[in-house]
Design brief:
CATH class of the largest domain: Mainly Beta
CATH superfamily of the largest domain: Nucleic acid-binding proteins
Number of helices: 7
Oligomer: single chain
Radius of gyration: 44 Å
Strand order of the largest sheet: 3-2-1-4-5
Structural class: alpha+beta
Distance between the termini: 130 Å
Strand content: 35-45%
CATH architecture of the largest domain: Beta Barrel
CATH topology of the largest domain: OB fold (Dihydrolipoamide Acetyltransferase, E2P)
Length: 473
């Protein structure tokens, strides 16, 4: 590179000195010299380096990041000698190589003096990331990306950041850089000032620097704070990425500060009022309201009744008759459903909700429309070891116990006369709404033959019969 005097020099004198220096200077391959742009055509930029003839350099070597030519005739540029005069008066020059050599000098200087360099993180490689610094590819180890371990480096890609050069081997084209060193150096003073003013209960601002499954780490300016997933919002958050992204600026409250370990716990939801306070007054038992299904599990569905407030509809409270159905067969995520508040435990932050309570109770309806002694008809739904279940109005079943099938034939034998799907008439024996049980009887339709016989004979009257069995006792 040409060093110029601090005093102003007329352009004619500078040009003369330039020509004189080129005429007396001994050229070497790889050397960087200064040339003047003479003209620009479609494919080449023609430069005058004081050689026997003008040199042609590919126009692409003069494009900026937007693809525009960044020089004009009369400009002086640095170029590197690729090959000396070949006998035809032509010496090959390269601006790219000159820029690359300058970039290496800058990196060597940065390593020696501890200067900070800027570069673009271009992609992932085994063990870390690649960084492009003025056309030089450098390696950023994963352990030096940040002051804390980073599992997912994707958010850092295609971003320009600052680094320190920690290792350089020009012969092997090997450059190693560290972003952590830059952060630690810049955070020193900020960290001390922050530690002096940090206390529980204050509101702070920071930048999200890393996201994990259990929360997000926020850079407060020299010290990191953990924003746990449970402190992001009063509502259920499945993953911190639903609310945050690396680089976001957030405001949070300091929940806990361990001065010995320099650990800070942060909360965003604590910036607003706790929606659980006074919930029992807002929603007393038996309150009916609408909510949105926010989560499904094997044991029930969670329904959000207001922002940050979810209640559980247990599978047993979803339907009066289908008690073992999977919740996904009844509702889907995002469905708006009507529910009834069954119980609220503000201390444990739990709400029990019911869906079936917003529908008519089929046992109550049956009890209102039928009474003991009434006759009913229905199809056999199932046959068990202890009786027959008959389908009734409202989707409920009534049980005919084996002992109520026949007066004369044992139940185990009588049940063989029935099969699933048969239409059966029976008499209502009892209705237990609370236990959701209805007892039916078939033999009661005919009346008790023993009672009928006794009713037809007076006391002390003589009767005639046949011996059916003898009991040795």
């Amino acid at each position: 590179m040409i060093k110029t005097s601090s005093q102003a020099v007329p352009s004619e004198s500078f040009a003369a000195l330039f020509e004189e220096s080129l005429a007396t200077k001994e050229m070497r391959i790889g050397e960087v010299i200064t040339a003047e742009v003479v003209r620009i055509d479609d494919n080449f930029v023609v430069v005058n380096a004081g050689l026997k003839s003008e040199s042609y350099v590919a126009v692409e070597e003069f494009h900026d990041d937007r693809g525009q030519i960044e020089v004009k005739p009369g400009d002086f540029v640095s170029v590197a000698i690729e090959s000396l005069e070949d006998g035809h008066g032509e010496t090959r020059l390269s601006r790219d190589k000159a820029k690359r050599l300058a970039a290496w000098h800058e990196l060597e200087d940065a390593l020696e003096k501890g200067n900070i360099v800027s570069g673009m993180i271009s992609g992932k490689v085994k063990g870390g990331l690649t960084v492009m610094i003025n056309g030089i590819r450098a390696f950023l180890p994963g352990s030096l990306v940040d002051t804390r371990p980073v599992k997912d480096t994707t958010p850092y890609e295609n971003k320009e950041m600052e680094f320190k050069v920690i290792k350089l081997d020009r012969k092997r084209n090997n450059v190693v850089v560290s972003r952590r060193a830059v952060l630690e150096a810049s955070q020193g003073e900020e960290r001390q000032k922050l530690l002096e003013n940090l206390r529980e209960g204050i509101t702070v601002k920071g930048i999200v620097k890393n996201i994990t499954d259990y929360g997000a780490f926020v850079d407060l300016g020299g010290i990191d704070g953990l924003l746990h997933i449970t402190d992001l919002a009063w509502r259920r958050v499945k993953h911190p990425s639903e609310m945050l992204a690396v680089g976001d600026e957030v405001t949070a409250k300091v929940l806990k500060f361990d001065q010995e370990k320099n650990r800070v716990s942060l909360g965003m939801k604590q910036l607003g009022e706790d929606p659980w306070v006074g919930l029992s007054r807002r929603y007393p038992p038996n309150t009916r309201l609408f909510g949105k299904v926010s989560n499904l599990t094997d044991y029930g569905a969670f329904v959000e009744i207001e922002p940050g407030i979810e209640g559980l509809v247990h599978v047993s409270e979803m339907d009066w008759t289908n008690k073992n159905v999977h919740p996904s067969k009844v509702v889907q995520l995002g469905d708006e459903v009507e529910v009834m508040v069954l119980e609220i435990d503000e201390e444990r932050r739990r709400i029990s909700l019911g869906m079936k309570q917003c529908m008519a109770n089929p046992w109550e309806e049956f009890s209102m429309n039928s009474k003991k002694g009434d006759k009913v008809t229905g199809q056999i739904k199932s046959i068990t070891d202890f009786g027959i279940f008959i389908g009734l109005a409202g989707g409920i079943d009534g049980l005919v116990h084996l002992s109520d099938l026949s007066w004369n034939v044992p139940g185990e034998e009588a049940v063989r006369n029935y099969k699933k799907g048969d239409e059966v008439e029976a008499q209502v024996l009892s209705i237990d709404v609370e236990r959701e049980r209805i007892s039916l009887g078939v033999k009661q339709l005919e009346g008790d033959p023993f009672t009928n016989y006794v009713g037809g004979h007076e006391k002390n009257s003589v009767v005639t019969g046949t011996v059916k069995a003898i009991d040795a006792k």
